[in-house]
Design goal:
The complex is a heterodimer. Chain A contains 13 helices and eleven strands. Chain A is an alpha+beta fold. In chain A, helix 9 packs antiparallel against helix 10 and helix 10 packs antiparallel against helix 13. By secondary structure, chain B is of the alpha/beta class. Chain B has a single domain, classed as HprK N-terminal domain-like (Udp-n-acetylmuramoylalanyl-d-glutamate--2,6- Diaminopimelate Ligase, Chain: A, domain 1, 3-Layer(aba) Sandwich), CATH 3.40.1390. Classes of the chains: A alpha+beta, B alpha/beta. Chains A and B meet through helix 9, helix 10 and helix 13 of A and helix 2 and helix 3 of B. Chain A: This is Histidine kinase.
């Protein structure tokens, strides 16, 4: 009942993996067996048995855990390994109960956790074993066990991660701009902001932030745009009868236009002063209205233009240049 | 510092996203003024606050705050907790005061988010 040797052939050694037939996926696996370490693929919560265990007890251990072999420990020291093969040999010899010490394989072949996975793949193939105990190189202590199943699982896991990254990659706007053929391309996103709805305030900026992330914009730029937009959105929610936020994204910059229809700001210069606020108490109790909003917006942007007419409304224009990611 | 260590130091309860306790927190910031948080906080931070409305979570989302801990035994309403879950921001609550929390974390090596020049 030794693990079928055939199973490992496709992973036998990186050199042998057929490249031309299955193309990219196989090449990716090839890459991964070199990138990943034995420690990444092994399982850590392994079943071990003490050297004083009887062979009968071992039979129960193997059966109940549905495993075909286990490392044998003397205290915390690895002293041997028992495989199904040892077990069958014992049965063939009459199966008289004795301690594992007498029947185990003492010359244990091991791997180190920091070795590349490809070593495990080729050793499994060469020696035909089902499992290898894995040691920490410094302490020489047993830290895990690696089987063919572990290797396959770890490779599948890594491939899945790559697949997700690939999916996200597909959303990137940098590609949109690369793919679109035009002398000038601009993406426009429009959102409406409800007045005095404090529990939902911030939803627009949240959506705007997600959009920019999906477009693959640099995280620093996204952060600045999101904070500026959020402060502006809060102002619309707190002070006005509602308005809209329009974001335009171009290869060179993001512009956020925040418009409302009143009541307007009487003293624009004062509004930009840190700490100047006309916020009522209920707003301050919610953690806003301390007269920092416009300062924050200015801090986040490369250009801030505020136009306002009392009784008519306010138009705030915020620009962030794409080449200021490291600002 | 791992979030689980912060939980221990502040003897905090986890309100949501227990599975995120392994997250690495680099800095902390204590404030009840969300505009200040937006102005000064940096990514991978813990936000300590006495405010419990949903805007705290929104602010955390915009400022890329990694976790929020409510001080002095405060807990937000279920809508706020749901929002935090959705935005993958773990929430904690501790009985300690803001000052006590800051002291405990700073003493154990969790720095502030920058000292003004």
């Amino acid at each position: 009942m030794r693990d079928k040797k055939k199973d490992t052939s496709s992973f036998s050694s990186a050199e042998k993996i057929p490249r031309n037939k299955k193309g990219a996926a196989i090449t990716k696996v090839q890459e991964l067996v070199y990138e990943l370490k034995v420690g990444d693929a092994m399982h850590k919560n392994m079943i071990t048995a003490s050297v004083d265990t009887s062979m009968r007890q071992l039979r129960e251990i193997l059966r109940s855990h549905r495993i075909s072999g286990t490392p044998i420990m003397d205290g915390d020291k690895l002293v041997g390994i028992v495989s199904i093969e040892d077990f069958i040999k014992w049965l063939a010899e009459g199966g008289k109960d004795c301690s594992i010490r007498e029947k185990m394989t003492k010359n244990v072949k091991t791997l180190y956790a920091d070795e590349p996975l490809v070593h495990a793949v080729s050793k499994l193939e060469q020696m035909g074993f089902g499992r290898f105990p894995v040691l920490d190189r410094q302490s020489n202590k047993l830290v895990g066990v690696i089987t063919k199943g572990d290797i396959i699982e770890s490779l599948l896991r890594e491939l899945e991660v790559d697949y997700h990254e690939e999916e996200i990659h597909r959303y990137r706007a940098s590609h949109i701009f690369e793919d679109i053929i035009a002398d000038k391309a601009t993406l426009t996103f429009q959102y409406s902001v409800k007045a005095k709805d404090f529990s939902r305030a911030g939803e627009v900026s949240s959506a705007l932030r997600k959009t920019l992330n999906r477009l693959g914009i640099h995280p620093n730029i996204v952060r600045r745009a999101a904070i500026a937009s959020y402060e502006a959105e809060m102002n619309v929610v707190i002070y006005t009868d509602g308005g809209e936020i329009v974001m335009t994204v171009r290869p060179d910059k993001i512009q956020i236009d925040v418009k409302d229809s009143g009541p307007g700001i009487a003293d624009i210069k004062k509004a930009f002063e840190p700490g100047y606020s006309t916020a009522p108490d209920w707003v301050r109790e919610l953690g806003f209205g301390a007269g920092m909003g416009l300062c924050n917006i200015k801090k986040c942007s490369d250009e801030t233009v505020l136009n306002s007419t009392v009784g008519k409304g306010t138009h705030l224009k915020v620009s962030i240049n794409m080449n200021t990611a490291e600002r | 510092m791992k979030l689980i260590r912060i939980k221990e130091l502040l003897k905090a309860d986890v309100l949501c996203l227990e599975e995120c306790l392994d997250n690495e927190i680099k800095i902390a910031c204590g404030s009840d003024l969300m505009s200040d948080v937006l102005a000064f906080i940096k990514p991978n931070a813990l936000l300590l606050t006495g405010l419990t409305n949903s805007q705290v979570v929104r602010t955390a989302e915009m400022a890329e705050v990694s976790a929020i801990c409510f001080v002095r035994g405060k807990t937000p309403d279920t809508n706020t907790i749901e929002l935090a879950k959705e935005r993958k921001i773990p929430l904690l609550t501790t009985k300690y005061s803001m000052y006590e929390c800051c002291g405990r974390l700073y003493q154990n090596g969790l720095p502030a988010c920058g000292i003004p020049k």
